């Protein structure tokens, strides 16, 4: 679920402007999972553009407090959301930790890095939601450390049905700054893509694991 429509449209436009999101229906990308995809999203680019990273920070900060209430701690999912998570924590005047998908294999074998007390409430920052599996591993790690999860806030989601079901099963409320639907609407309106390309992108989103050009 998006925080609000205005933020979703503005965020989508900014991500397209800096090529954090690339749309290429005619020459698809190959994800690490092996899926073919007409879209590629790298939200780490946001950190290289001060005005945009500040916008994302501010939208997260005000909408997190409005939607979840002020938590005790902000947690970023490693590694993509560490930077923006720190900015949000600083803006909200809160402690920050980051969480790995699984514990380290050496040293103290931490999964959660930073100071976190049992019973503290946490809002998790994520950069991108695809299936939600890796994000929910971070949730499990925080719960295992005794955290009370108020919810997760992400920059962008592809809006896959499997992700919606995974978050529902985990009983985690997910809110995002933008999503696939608002991205496509904006991309057509601003002529980043044609209506024919929009149709291809919508077909992919229905069944990304089996889609091919």
From TrEMBL:
One Gene Ontology molecular-function label: magnesium ion binding
Protein EC: 2.4.2.10
Residue sites binding orotate per the record: 130
UniProtKB keywords: Glycosyltransferase, Magnesium, Pyrimidine biosynthesis, Transferase
UniProt cross-references to SUPFAM superfamilies, sorted A to Z: PRTase-like
Cofactor: Mg(2+)
Domain Phosphoribosyltransferase residues, every copy: 58-150
Keyword Metal-binding: no
Signal peptide (from-to): none
Annotated binding of 5-phospho-alpha-D-ribose 1-diphosphate, by residue: 100, 104, 106, 126-134
Reaction equation(s) it catalyzes: orotidine 5'-phosphate + diphosphate = orotate + 5-phospho-alpha-D-ribose 1-diphosphate
Pathway in which this enzyme or protein is active: Pyrimidine metabolism; UMP biosynthesis via de novo pathway; UMP from orotate: step 1/2
NCBIfam families named among the record's database cross-references: pyrE
UniProt subunit comment: Homodimer.
Job of this protein: Catalyzes the transfer of a ribosyl phosphate group from 5-phosphoribose 1-diphosphate to orotate, leading to the formation of orotidine monophosphate (OMP).
UniProt protein name: Orotate phosphoribosyltransferase
């Amino acid at each position: 679920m998006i925080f609000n429509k205005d933020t979703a449209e503005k965020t989508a436009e900014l991500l397209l402007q800096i090529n954090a999101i690339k749309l290429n229906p005619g020459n698809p990308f190959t994800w690490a999972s092996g899926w073919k995809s007409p879209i590629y999203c790298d939200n780490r680019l946001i950190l290289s553009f001060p005005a945009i990273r500040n916008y994302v920070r501010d939208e997260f900060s005000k909408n997190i407090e409005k939607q979840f209430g002020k938590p005790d701690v902000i947690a970023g999912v490693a590694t993509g959301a560490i930077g923006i998570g720190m900015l949000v924590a600083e803006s909200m005047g809160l402690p920050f930790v980051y969480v790995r998908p699984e514990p380290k294999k050496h040293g103290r074998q931490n999964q959660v890095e930073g100071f976190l007390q049992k019973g503290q409430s946490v809002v998790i920052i994520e950069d991108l939601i695809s299936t939600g599996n890796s994000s929910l591993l971070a949730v499990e790690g925080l719960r295992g450390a005794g955290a009370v999860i108020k919810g997760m806030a992400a920059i962008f989601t592809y809006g896959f049905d499997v992700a919606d079901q995974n978050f529902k099963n985990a009983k985690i409320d997910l809110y995002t700054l933008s999503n696939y639907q608002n991205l496509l609407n904006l991309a057509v309106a601003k002529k980043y893509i044609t209506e024919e390309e929009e149709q291809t992108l919508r077909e992919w989103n229905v069944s990304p694991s089996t889609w091919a050009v």
